Amino acid sequence: MTKLAAGFKQIGHYRISDPYSLLPFRFMRLDAGRHVLTNMAGQHLVVPAGIMPELVERRLPTGHPLVPDLEAGHFVTQGADDVHLELLAAQIRTRQARLADMTALHMFVVSLRCDHSCGYCQVSRVSEDRKAFDMTPKTADRAVDLMLRSPSRQLKVEFQGGEPLLNFPVIQRIVERTKKRAGEQDLAFVIATNLAFVTDEILDFCAAHQICISTSLDGPPELHNTNRPRPGKDAHARTIDGINRCRARLGHDRVSALMTCTASSLAQPEAIIDEYVRHGFQEIFLRYISPYGFAVRAANKVGYETEQFLEFYRRGLANILNLNGEGVRMREVYASILLRRMLTSQPTGYVDLQSPAGAGLSALVYNYNGEVYASDEGRMLAEMGDKTFHLGSVHHSTWESLFLDSPLLDMADRTMTEGLPGCSECAFQPWCGSDRVFHHATQGDAVGHRPTSAFCRRNMEIMRHLVRLLEDDPAAAEILRGWAR
Ligand code: SF4
């Protein structure tokens, strides 16, 4: 028996006279007539609310039609052996496998310079001509050497800014040094760029090194140009031109796009999704605005309430499901991540929704000046004067000092949803995660207060909405199950 299974065994209060024993599970109200149950491995079952007292007091007759489902989902067991516990433990091990492969994502902020002045920008960007805000070759070399100490078998190197293409020589240097010095590790490179400065030489280098491109596309021209102003007011035209050039040189699938929902976006989810369909994308991430950096200072202009975002999200998801019904291939990325957690035991690498939190454990950020942060959002906070998530510097830290003598271990300990107030009893805990930086920034407390947390409200409502669609709308459920695969 595994230690985990042994632990479960001690939780049970099985009496010979009981028709079944309970395995560990959480439950909560889905709506007035139904409860949703989840086990520790994330499997779920929706049951009529009325059966809960009988179920938890082990008074449900073994002939009740729900008992086979409850047993198949590892919520109860009628047997005296440990088979259910062993299966549950194996599923939990699979879901948590990423923890053994820590720090796979490494973000290099190669320049703070940018030609855009987006109202929601998380970065304290500087204007194009201030070269003091570029990463130097020496800092880049030290950051690469530090990154290569990561025990992860897969390293994803992401170039960020500002606009990273404004310091392309350092990108080249990092890619070449990483490839030369990496051992057995699998490498992947991504440049997050607004594409305004892409050239044939840059594309040749990207093609030679299989570098992917991630860009921003906020919607139709008027919305995109409003959200992402630049001199010439031609951000949308440059982005579309850049997408087409990148696809032609690198391949269609090597270019992805992200959108950020601003106050101007709220009324037009359908138009935003249509824009993605028009330009040949098969997925869209309906993304909430971040409460950091410039986004905080511009909150009155670009911000909105969580309920407004949820309305936007539900409308957008309905539109995507309709498009799928008409034969258009399109999926929403956040729903896909959650559905994979809800319907499979496979781990998902999405850093912003992990337990313990992904900051530092799944990702590290090397700022242009060599400072190391636990997450990109932690770097934004530091730009605003709060260095809580600063871990060290590539110029004097070692891999060991970043992890053993830093707040990282403390952060991990306090970000496990299994034990956080509110989350520990929440039925959605196995699908959710924690975001210490978000709660520190918005509530002044790293653990956070779930009843007033926008993070919790947003995730809880999206998960509740997905469970209802899976239960109540067979056509939508079939599409959503496909996204989980
Ligand atoms: S953050 Fe909210 S939805 Fe997520 S597990 Fe915690 S209580 Fe549940």
Question: What does this protein look like?
Answer:
The structure is a single chain. The strands form four sheets. A nine-stranded mixed β-sheet has the order 12-10-9-8-7-6-14-15-16, sandwiched between helices. The protein starts with a helix and ends with a helix. The chain folds into two domains: 3-95, no CATH class; 102-335 and 349-402, TIM Barrel (Alpha-Beta Barrel), CATH 3.20.20.70. The model is unreliable at 1-16 (pLDDT under 50). It is globular. The protein has helices at 3-11, 52-56, 67-72, 83-95, 137-147, 168-181, 200-208, 221-227, 235-250, 269-278, 293-297, 299-302, 306-325, 333-343, 376-383, 399-404, 408-413, 436-443, 454-472, 474-484, and strands at 21-22, 25-31, 34-39, 44-48, 76-77, 105-109, 154-160, 186-192, 211-216, 255-260, 283-284, 286-287, 331-332, 363-366, 371-373, 390-393. The protein contains 20 helices and 16 strands. With 485 residues, it is α/β, with parallel strands linked by helices. A hairpin with a 4-residue loop joins strand 3 (34-39) and strand 4. Bound molecules: iron/sulfur cluster. Residues 417, 422-423, 426, 428-429, 432, 450, 456, 459-460 line the site of iron/sulfur cluster (SF4).
